[in-house]
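Support case: zinc ion complex. Customer-provided input:
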Amino acid sequence: MTQRFPFHTLEPTFFSGLLDDPVLHLTIRPTGKGLLLDCGRIHHLAKRVMKSLSTLFISHAHMDHFMGIDTFIRSVHVAPKTIDIYGPPGLTKKMTCKLAGYDWNLAEPTWCSFRVHDVCADCIETAIFPGPEGFIRRSGDTVLRPDRTIYLDEQIKVEAEQCDHKIPSLVYRISELPSFLVDEEKLHRAGLVRGNWLRILKKHLYGSKQANEPLKVLRRQGEDIVEELVENPANLYERICGEHPAASIGYITDIGFTGKNIEKIVNLMKGVTLLVCECSFLRQDKEKARMSAHLCTDDVNILADRLRPRFFLPMHLSKSYIHTWERLYDELELPSSVTLVRLPKYLTPQPLLPCEARKIARQG
Ligand SMILES: [Zn+2]
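Agent response - structure generated as follows:
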């Protein structure tokens, strides 16, 4: 994925080829925090990447989306931090079984903890698995979910919607939060002059200060620059702020092409900048797509037309197309405003044969 995207905070990397298990990695600037969407085959991710991950978002627990959780646990369990994992209802139970499948008698007080969130339709149920206690499950809170937002920090917001894949499958939208931006032209027209007050205004809006506290600004008055007290800094910002469309990424995988699913997706993904979307089947196999609640190229063409993302990345093609995988791109009919992002066939390294392993050993 060499395409440059118009993001400020998000830096996406798709760690999969078209036929690999889907794994979307996001680096959040400027913190360098890492997020992972889905966790199938992930053994090719560098340990440094794994260690930077703070939060995982799982669509559903079919093996090709979740089996890498063991690799992930292996890479991070001795790190002194808490890692959040979001997924559909039942994920906590699966993590309980996963973690109970190993012996943890050598656990140390500095080991990590996993905080697992079952994202239900109207609430989020959280459980914690403290590493220092051998990852025994401790029950946590249940919080009501008044809207689709499941995660919010200073840089991004993550929203989720539960779709049907014969089991619940979550689709995610990750949006950058608007950053402080002043339009020089508007500032000039308002008769204002740059100064330290802009820094204070930013604190008013995003920091600890109250947005409704009066603020001293600098105004041009003939040849002079004078101080003036503004009663409502938030209103002032509305008049001088620059255009900064909040860029976002949509992640859709493993859903049936049903009226209900499409309605949810259209509502959630409208105006998304980059859409990463499953396309498991070619149009000749539409029936297979319907039977297994996946999408085919015809479905994806309809979605791309309804959603009109700026960039569109189809992924997760069935391995049955190992020799005909490029036909996916022939069958795509995207609106001219949508830029297609192509993937290689595979991005994961090929597994070794015994003779290849012996050759490497001889060279070493
Ligand atoms: Zn699935």
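The longest strand covers residues 156-164.

Case will auto-close in a few days if no follow-up is received.
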